[in-house]
Amino acid sequence: MKLTILGGGGFRVPLVYGALLGDRGEGRVTEVVLHDLDADRLYAIARVLNEQAAGVPDAPAVATTTDLDEALRGADFVFSAIRVGGLEGRANDERVALAEGVLGQETVGAGGIAYGLRTVPVAVDIARRISRLAPDAWVINFTNPAGLVTEAMSRHLGDRVIGICDSPVGLGRRIARTLGVHPKDAWIDYVGLNHLGWVRGLRVAGRDELPRLLADPDLLGSFEEGKLFGVEWLQSLGAVPNEYLHYYYFNREAVRAYQKADKTRGAFLRDQQARFYDEMQRPDAAALTVWDRTRAEREATYMAENRETAGAGERDADDLSGGYEKVALALMRAIARDERTTLILNVRNQGTLSVLDTDAVIEVPCLVDANGAHPLAVAPLPGHATGLVCAVKAVEREVLAAAASGSRATAVKAFALHPLVDSVNVARRLMEGYTAVHPGLAYLA
Ligand code: G6P
Ligand code: MN
């Protein structure tokens, strides 16, 4: 079985390869093709994979290429994990937004819109090529903003593209652990959009255990989301939000913290990763050791500013390696071997949330089997959550429309309609600021 990874020179590819190395089952991946635009990055990551494979019998073969069509031909699965504009682009997304006093996070608010506007045209081109060159392939999209990009690709690939994120999985796991429940035994009632969802229940053998957590301040304050949002706010909501809702519920604090920080997340990662890729060009570099050290530092500093504003302290050791590669592998196995399982994924709504149309990509628990991912019924969202979901989906639709038409006015509308952008004038200036720094937005006229 052939797995093609787009963005194959990306830093987190060794996590995926590590998961593949642990898979001894029949029908496993035997061939991995890494595609990237940058041959140096491919070389760097291939070195790490080579060290990972040392001593593992029948390790999946690894090939690298900068030819996209060659990479796609004959693929059974395609992982898409690209970053249009690189980490320099991410840092610019943050900088331009913060200068206007609004959030520039890569998936939330103005930053997510800017990143979406330059990523969607590239993702659509990839989707079109896949439907021509590998029409039977399953596409697993990791590329952020993951919900929006999955929806863009689904217009060409239908339900053969599935978006993934490890945040809801991590959230479910943390709640289960706090309640002393094995995550495998728990049914998690979670729904929303990517990075915009809420856990409203956690059922074990039919009984909802979440009220027990919400009623116990000590338990509630003991895990990441409890510390981030505070016990009282979670009790008021009667639900546990995805960590990315911190950017909405504590927006001023998050914006201020990023404005004050020495470096934004994007700038920190740009510099950290540049050091890693430079080091990998040295013939004597200890590839796997250096990669692992860099990974540990990246994970330990994840959402550090948000945690600081909340006084949440350091991350729990158990929360460090997020596990998105495990979600991807579980998804791939369920499809390839018809190993039925339930996973929280980004798929087309198909009537799950009655306030959204059938083709809107949402994040929801799905039953996965050889026929793909099928969204499961969940409780309806309360009004405040429905409001946010509808507002953000409307923004995503403007981004998709702008990408399809090349209309700058539509792009401005996307910025202006976002709940975290507080003035049409700000939206206009964001558009100016972003087009000045991003060549990838030159198509907007
Ligand atoms: C979480 C999010 C992902 C994001 C990742 C890395 O897992 O769900 O969407 O890509 O964190 O974040 P970082 O800030 O390290 O790039
Ligand atoms: Mn994510």
TrEMBL record:
CDD domains assigned to the protein according to its UniProt record, in alphabetical order: GH4_P_beta_glucosidase
Site entry (Increases basicity of active site Tyr), positions: 106
Cofactor binding notes: Binds 1 NAD(+) per subunit.
BP term (GO), one: carbohydrate metabolic process
Binding site for Mn(2+): 165, 195
Cofactor: NAD(+)
Pfam families linked to this entry: Glyco_hydro_4, Glyco_hydro_4C
Record-annotated active site: 166, 244
InterPro entries registered for this protein in UniProt: GlycHydrolase_4_CS, Glyco_hydro_4, Glyco_hydro_4_C, Lactate_DH/Glyco_Ohase_4_C, NAD(P)-bd_dom_sf
UniProt-listed Gene3D superfamilies: Lactate dehydrogenase/glycoside hydrolase, family 4, C-terminal, NAD(P)-binding Rossmann-like Domain
A GO molecular function held by the record: oxidoreductase activity, acting on the CH-OH group of donors, NAD or NADP as acceptor
Binding-site residues, substrate: 90, 144
Iron keyword on record: yes
Hydrolase listed as a keyword: yes
Key words, A-Z: Cobalt, Glycosidase, Hydrolase, Iron, Manganese, Metal-binding, NAD, Nickel
Start and end residues of each Glycosyl hydrolase family 4 C-terminal domain: 190-421
Entry's family note: Belongs to the glycosyl hydrolase 4 family.
The protein's name in its UniProt record: 6-phospho-beta-glucosidase
Organism this protein belongs to: Streptomyces luteolifulvus
